[in-house]
Design a protein that fits this description.
two-stranded antiparallel ribbon, two-stranded parallel ribbon, 4 strands, elongated, alpha+beta, Endo/exonu/phosph_ase_sf, 73 residues
């Protein structure tokens, strides 16, 4: 019995972006985020300084999903 090993490499380019939210305590901030995301090419987005006390999973009007996890220091 013959066996062959295949080395398959996928070349996938991901656009990784960061966004400084500076508090997400108002709905206007989510609107501001969605408008900013329309202007850039991104696949993965890291958001800093969210400052929310609870964990959330939000589906934005654009269809994107925003997941926020509380990190205690």
């Amino acid at each position: 019995m013959n066996s062959a090993t295949y080395n398959i490499r996928l070349k996938i380019k991901l656009a990784i972006a960061t966004y400084n939210m500076r508090s997400m305590n108002k709905d206007e901030k989510l609107y501001e985020l969605e408008e900013a995301l329309k202007l850039i090419n991104w696949d993965i987005l890291e958001i800093s300084e969210v400052r929310k006390r609870e964990e959330q999973c939000i589906t934005l009007n654009s269809g994107n999903t925003l997941f926020h996890k509380v990190v205690l220091e």
